[in-house]
Amino acid sequence: MIVLGTGAAAIVGVVLLALIAGGAAMLYLGLRGKTAAQVDREANVHLNALVAASPAVPTIVRGDGRVEMPQRMADWLGLATPPRSLAELTGEGSGLSAEDVAALTADVTAAHRSGRGFVRAVRPLGSTRAITLRGARAPGEMGSAGAVLLWAFDATDTEAEIARLSGETQRLGSAYDALTGLIEAAPMPMWYRAPDLRLTMVNSAYVEAVEGRSAADVVARGLELVEGSGRGGPLAGAAAAREAGRPHEQVLPATIDGERRSLQIYDVPLPTGGVAGFAIDIEELEQARSGAKRFAEAQRAMLDRLSAGVAQFGGDHGLVFCNQPFRRMFAMRAEWLADRPEFDRVLERMREADRLPEARDFPSWKAERRAWFTQTGPIQGGGAIEEHWHLRGGTHLRVVAQPLPDGGLLLIFEDRTEQVQLASARDTLLRVRTATFDNLFEALGVFAADGRLQLWNNRFRALWGLEEEFLASHPRIDAFAEAAAAKLATPGRAALFPELVHSATVERQQRGGRVAFADGRHFEFAGVPLPDGNALFTMLDITASRRAEQTLRERAEVLEAADRVKTAFVANMSYELRTPLTSISGFAEMLHGGYAGKLTKKADGYVEAILESVERLGLLVDDVLDLTRDAVEDGGVAREDVDLAAIVRAGAESIVPTAKRRKLDFAIEVARSTGRVTGDARRLREVVEHLLRHAAAATPDGGRILLHADGNATSARIVVSDDGPGMDADAVAHAFDRFAETKPMGDRALGLGLPLAKQFVEAHGGTIELVSEPGQGTLITVEVPRR
């Protein structure tokens, strides 16, 4: 057992006391710290609750790049766990986009370095949430230096509201712009007055109407559209509208573009206290009203001149107007009509005049006509009721009743008696035409524009041997052609029928042809376009005429062969006659020349007569040879440039000896316009000679012959006239016939000169004309073209 001394005990006591005092102090401090910790814990819970309930979520980005983010912020970004760095803010389909992360990193770095705050709006991937990030350097109390505090705000609703408000603002702005543009573009003057009724806004139409320079100029000068002041002025209407609180309307005169116009002024009070106004030019409306009134008067005057009777009743069923034909038609006096009788009384007066159809129950019949005033059901003619009244004596009236918008009724009475009679006559004619159509010798069929058979007669059906059922089906032309092909000698010819109908219906051209049937008959067919667009297909049996034509053709061939034999015989005889004529001419010339001794005067006269006869016979032989030459008949004449004037003079020389011997007055007139032509010089000279010989033969001794030639730009003319005995109509008609029986002209015959002249002129493309009357001489005109 250890015994301590008094001093040691004291030391131990002191130590124990110190320990107890220290324990008590430590207990006190512990209790105080516990109390402070409890307060801090409660404050921390409070702060955490405030942060959790705050619309902003904080995030700290440390200087070393570490990120301290609450789970709430990670949920906003669509991340499963909070990221540890900015690079982890992006993921597959969640977080932020790489562009947003890069931009946010650049903002945080700038905030680290310069302490400058920033604001950035981001959208998480795959989410419609909009987040606004506000960043700034964190306070020093929050930890390490250089940290950046990010506050995240959910701006989804805000941005939607902003977008809505922006859209509404844009819509209202567009509406305002449209309204302003509409007011500016309005063709009528429009304006706005402030509460004190001063002009504050006008449109371009207003400026133009008051002849101002601009809208500002008009407002500054206070130019009013309508002159005057006081009760009838423009401000009076605006003041009345403002005081009454409803639109005010008035008609005032104004001068626009130097013309006096009537304006309908409208003043409309606005909630702002101002008054808006606009003006409508009703000058044309006033004129239209006046014109309508004049038109109504003119219309009534015109109705008075119509052949149809017209009566108009008002909404009270009283007679408002009736024209002269109505009065005559129903035998009504103007004095009685002047009292505006009612509809029922007018019908009764018509009945008294025996101008109504028979009706067993007249009151019921009248009540039915009275219902015309209120007719509302479906009626004919878009609102008109039509009836036909058959009166005694065969009179037929067409009655048209037209209800009027004001409750009245317009009645029109048209006398159709003549039309009904004409319609009856037309029906009779149609029946006659149908009977005629069915009994015609021709086979007729009518095809419509679509190619279908519409009408046909009995001969048409019998000709093709088609069944009535087939025709009644209205076959198309191609089906008809196919059915008719078997009747033809050449079935392929049936293809012409569709072409024929198409040409008549579409091209509106008439075409035709001939076709042979298998039984030996021949028909002539044609497609004729009809006025209604259809085509008439006709077929005529020409079998008999075909046979007659063949007989005539064979006879013509025989006659042509005989003509050729005659022509050859005449040519041969002409050549044979030339040989003895030459001998006779030679011997006669020898006798006349004294080779056989001197002849007596009488014998010498005989020889001269022989020479003259030989010369004349030689000319006749030459004429016959010319008529029988095929080359001339075929137009075989030379084509060369010849001087027609010289040819005419040369041809005239052939008749000079005869003219001198017979003491004829032979006049020659060749104008400079005769000129040159293209042709055969010899034949043209013979034309002149033949005409002169004919004139000399027809002219008595001492008579007169005229040869005249002239021309124009296209042709030349030769005229030969004489004052001989002339020719009758029969001689003129046969003057140019070959080998025609000639009639004596005094002691001379016509000869072959004129036929030859005609033949030569026509070979040159010209014409020859003979004019003559008995006792008036003869005139022959020849026209020869230049080329």
From TrEMBL:
<dbReference type="InterPro" id="IPR005467">
    <property type="entry name" value="His_kinase_dom"/>
</dbReference>
<dbReference type="InterPro" id="IPR003594">
    <property type="entry name" value="HATPase_dom"/>
</dbReference>
<dbReference type="InterPro" id="IPR000014">
    <property type="entry name" value="PAS"/>
</dbReference>
<dbReference type="Pfam" id="PF02518">
    <property type="entry name" value="HATPase_c"/>
</dbReference>
<dbReference type="GO" id="GO:0000155">
    <property type="term" value="F:phosphorelay sensor kinase activity"/>
</dbReference>
<dbReference type="Pfam" id="PF12860">
    <property type="entry name" value="PAS_7"/>
</dbReference>
<feature type="domain" description="Histidine kinase">
    <location>
        <begin position="572"/>
        <end position="787"/>
    </location>
</feature>
<keyword id="KW-0812">Transmembrane</keyword>
<dbReference type="InterPro" id="IPR003661">
    <property type="entry name" value="HisK_dim/P_dom"/>
</dbReference>
<protein>
    <recommendedName>
        <fullName>histidine kinase</fullName>
        <ecNumber>2.7.13.3</ecNumber>
    </recommendedName>
</protein>
<keyword id="KW-1133">Transmembrane helix</keyword>
<dbReference type="Pfam" id="PF00512">
    <property type="entry name" value="HisKA"/>
</dbReference>
<keyword id="KW-0808">Transferase</keyword>
<keyword id="KW-0418">Kinase</keyword>
<dbReference type="InterPro" id="IPR050736">
    <property type="entry name" value="Sensor_HK_Regulatory"/>
</dbReference>
<keyword id="KW-0597">Phosphoprotein</keyword>
<dbReference type="InterPro" id="IPR035965">
    <property type="entry name" value="PAS-like_dom_sf"/>
</dbReference>
<dbReference type="InterPro" id="IPR036097">
    <property type="entry name" value="HisK_dim/P_sf"/>
</dbReference>
<keyword id="KW-0902">Two-component regulatory system</keyword>
<dbReference type="InterPro" id="IPR036890">
    <property type="entry name" value="HATPase_C_sf"/>
</dbReference>
<dbReference type="InterPro" id="IPR004358">
    <property type="entry name" value="Sig_transdc_His_kin-like_C"/>
</dbReference>
<feature type="transmembrane region" description="Helical">
    <location>
        <begin position="6"/>
        <end position="31"/>
    </location>
</feature>
<keyword id="KW-0472">Membrane</keyword>
